User: Fold this.
Amino acid sequence: MSVYLNNAATSWPKPEPVARAVADFLTNGGANLGRGASGARDIGTMSLVLDCRIKLAELLGGYDKDSRLVTFCSGVTEALNVVLKGFFESKTRSGCKVKFITTSMEHNAVARPLAALKERGAELVILPCVADGTLDPEVLALALSKDCAYDKARCIADIVVLSHASNVCGSVQPLEKIADITRRRGVPLVVDSAQTAGVIPIDAAALSLSALCFTGHKGLMGPQGIGGALWKADFASEVLPLIEGGTGSFSHLLSQPSDMPDKFESGTPNLPGIAGLFAALSWLAATGIDNIASHEKELGEAFLSRMRRSPQAERVTLYGLPEMGENRLGVFALNIGGCDNGILAGKLSDAGFDTRPGLHCAPLAHKTLGTLPEGSLRASIGYFNTKDEIEAFWDCVESLI
Ligand SMILES: Cc1ncc(COP(=O)(O)O)c(C=O)c1O
Assistant:
């Protein structure tokens, strides 16, 4: 038996058209983007990339559905680096101090760039989340009110960056309330949607997000190595590019173009990745993110109910929120009394069940959940899991502990 319960790391399997689209691009398309003589294959690549931007803007609430405000890079890690470091560089050059405000549940994709920027002089405020991994919006409101959100006189530029949902325990932050606070205070809000894009509905423009960073290979169901950001136009104009180079446009200039999306897209993009992502987004649109969310909620409920019916239930500690709901994904961090989570994950793997043990690139989150230093065993469900697989997982756990 082979059961994949590591969808928080990367979704698998992918919808069938995804691999076909990657192969088709490499076999029949293959032209570079804006770097040819506009033959049919060049135009094919241009339309593919444009269509993929449009689809992302439609699915994730891009501003005015403007494809120019969707930029590609290798994934959410790179997108967060581009946004956070580019904002820091821009404000620092104009003589401002930057104050980054984040949470105690962040993945290292947020935590490490911020730690590096702190070394370079940024102020860093890490807001404590409660034990279930959620942030009380009042804590954010208080953090902003102390130092005035965007204090032009003292030239302190605040910026809030956080993950929409925890990759460790599946807790979803109250993004509407958070966005309401940052919008009223005029503070940019940057969101890491690694765990939520494609899994629950997101509308970046309705939330007035400054940048929504996404990765293609998790809930968006695409291949690895493709991701990017949806930008608010005025915020994009405030951010300096992290990487300069050829864009296939404005080639007479030695300076990086300021036009979107070229400003943040130097070098040849991952075109096979974009082909796969576009196929995945088309599948998502046809399936419906609402339907995906309710299906995963049902699977999550089955997981929790089977866990609680286990004769070994008393030995199981579940972290994060106890029930499925709007603020919980099907990402379950567990520890089982008397078991080392790494050894248990190894035994599960030998039996055909893929999970992930340890710290999940998120030591801050584990500190918040009280699971340092050992971390936890994470089982994360995806659209293609079944209730039978969940039953089999718990049967197997019971036989191993
Ligand atoms: C919340 C969160 N942020 C960032 C990342 C990094 O994603 P990628 O490796 O695709 O850049 C992950 C992946 O595990 C994640 O779960």
